[in-house]
């Protein structure tokens, strides 16, 4: 039995926070698999050790075992300074993502009921309207940065509408979320502060003026969430909504523009959904997350995981585990949804149907409006943002024949 190296950063640990990892994470996963097997000692930030799970079967075991792998980080964070850049993404909050047992059930029920009440036909119409407005802003220019001019505005405006959030408050929340995902100490702390103030204003607004939106439904739910609990539900919804959805849209468009399987297939009627599923399988926008904190040292296939140290699931690596992908023929991943990118078990994403609909509708609108769109630079010149959790571009420049 072996134990991952405890303590501070060391050569034995793989740094997930630097530009080298962001540039080519799959090469890093391959080295990890060769050097460590399915359970890898990593650093999420300097001096913040964790175990990264890159084996598909090991991840399934952990995600389906909340008794031994609870999501509550309160003991862990006692030894983590508030200046730690990844702490805002990992610290305890009174919400379903960071709770276990009865509290998890209570929060999960309120969130699921509020999200499932969203009308799918209305949501599709909303996305089409937002996408059309975004495209009209750059269609006459012949060029655009789809990340900032298309993917982000769609994720932001659609999510704000679903949550009943005015743009002024929503922009502050989105700014705070972007700072947290950057995993830089000063930015993360400031982002946490910005978000806290903004969501508190949204809760107060919807308590006074309820509407047909997720925030109002959360307030009215029988779980009787107080203001602090309400704020943290909204932090989670925005965190799961804006950044990952922005990157899912951008990364899928990039895949379509650079993979002949999809660029040719779309003209033959191949659905955008196949490209979405391939991205979720091979390179999901939330690459490493689903964090748990064992209460006691626990043996997983001969590796002793320390108590109260983060266990992070690499959805990107697990989906591509040779133990389950070797022998699969070309094109097998097209339309294949047997991936972990929405998680599994008690913390499965409750909004995956909505995320699929938003991304698929938005991308279809873009390709319908600008069928001759192409990448404006070599793929090798695209820059991926560093960070242990996300797979996110700095920009996605494109060109196309200008249209009125």
User: What's the main sheet like?
Assistant: 5 strands, mixed
Here the CATH topology equals Cytochrome p450
Q: Span between N and C termini?
A: 66 Å
**Named CATH architecture:** Orthogonal Bundle
| Beta-strand content bin | 5-15%
Which runs of at least 5 residues are low in confidence (pLDDT < 50)?
Answer: 2-10
| Integer-rounded radius of gyration | 21 Å
Number of helices: 17
Order of helices and strands: EHHEEHHHHHEHHHHHHHEEEEHHHEE
Secondary structure category: alpha+beta
Question: Taking strands numbered 1, 2, ... along the chain, how are they ordered across the largest sheet?
Answer: 1-2-3-8-5
The total of beta strands comes to 10
Helices and strands in order, then pairings?
Blueprint: E1 14-15, H1 19-23, H2 25-36, E2 39-45, E3 48-53, H3 56-63, H4 74-77, H5 87-90, H6 101-116, H7 120-136, E4 143-145, H8 146-163, H9 167-182, H10 185-208, H11 214-220, H12 227-258, H13 260-267, H14 272-282, E5 288-292, E6 298-300, E7 303-305, E8 311-314, H15 315-319, H16 322-325, H17 352-369, E9 374-375, E10 397-399
Parallel strand pairs: 1-2, 3-8
Antiparallel strand pairs: 2-3, 4-10, 5-8, 6-7, 9-10
Helix pairs in contact: 6-11, 7-8, 7-17, 8-12, 9-10, 9-12, 10-12, 12-13, 12-14, 12-17
Characterize the structure shown:
The strands form 3 sheets. The chain has a 5-stranded mixed sheet. With 404 residues, it is α+β, with helices and mostly antiparallel strands. The protein has 17 helices and 10 strands. Helix 9 (167-182) crosses helix 12 (227-258). It has one domain: Orthogonal Bundle (Cytochrome p450). Mean pLDDT is 90; it is low at 2-10.
């Amino acid at each position: 039995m072996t134990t991952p190296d405890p303590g501070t950063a060391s050569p034995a640990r793989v740094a997930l926070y630097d530009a080298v990892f962001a540039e080519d994470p799959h090469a890093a996963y391959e080295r990890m698999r060769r050097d460590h097997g399915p359970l890898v000692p990593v650093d999420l930030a300097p001096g913040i050790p964790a175990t990264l799970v890159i084996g598909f079967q090991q991840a399934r075991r952990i995600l389906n075992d909340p008794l031994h792998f609870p999501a509550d980080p309160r003991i862990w964070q006692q030894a983590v300074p508030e200046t730690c850049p990844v702490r805002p993404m990992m610290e305890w909050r009174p919400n379903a993502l960071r709770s276990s047992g009865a509290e998890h059930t209570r929060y999960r029920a309120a969130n699921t009921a509020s999200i499932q009440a969203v009308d799918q036909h209305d949501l599709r119409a909303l996305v089409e309207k937002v996408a059309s407005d975004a495209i009209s802003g750059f269609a006459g220019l012949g060029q655009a940065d789809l990340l900032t001019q298309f993917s982000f505005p769609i994720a932001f405006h659609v999510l704000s509408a679903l949550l009943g959030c005015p743009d002024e408050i929503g922009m502050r929340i989105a700014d705070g979320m972007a700072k947290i995902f950057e995993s830089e100490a000063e930015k993360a702390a400031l982002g946490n502060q910005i978000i806290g103030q903004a969501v508190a204003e949204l809760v107060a607004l919807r308590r006074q003026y309820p509407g047909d939106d997720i925030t109002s439904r959360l307030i009215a739910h029988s779980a009787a969430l107080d203001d602090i609990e309400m704020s943290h539900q909204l932090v989670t919804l925005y965190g799961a909504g804006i950044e990952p959805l922005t990157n899912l849209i951008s990364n899928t468009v990039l895949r379509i523009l650079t993979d002949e399987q999809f660029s040719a297939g779309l003209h033959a009627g191949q659905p955008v959904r196949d490209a979405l599923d391939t991205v979720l399988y091979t390179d999901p926008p939330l690459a490493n997350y689903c964090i748990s904190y064992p209460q006691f040292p626990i043996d997983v296939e001969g590796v002793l995981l320390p108590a109260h140290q983060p266990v992070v699931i690499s959805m990107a690596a697990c989906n591509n585990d040779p133990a389950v992908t070797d022998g699969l023929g070309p094109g097998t991943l097209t339309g294949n949804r047997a991936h972990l990118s929405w998680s599994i078990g008690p913390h499965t994403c409750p909004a995956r149907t909505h995320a699929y609909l938003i991304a698929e509708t938005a991308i279809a609108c873009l390709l319908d409006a600008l069928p001759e769109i192409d990448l404006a630079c070599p793929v090798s010149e695209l820059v991926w943002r560093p960070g242990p959790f996300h797979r996110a571009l700095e920009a996605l420049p494109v060109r196309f024949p200008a249209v009125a």
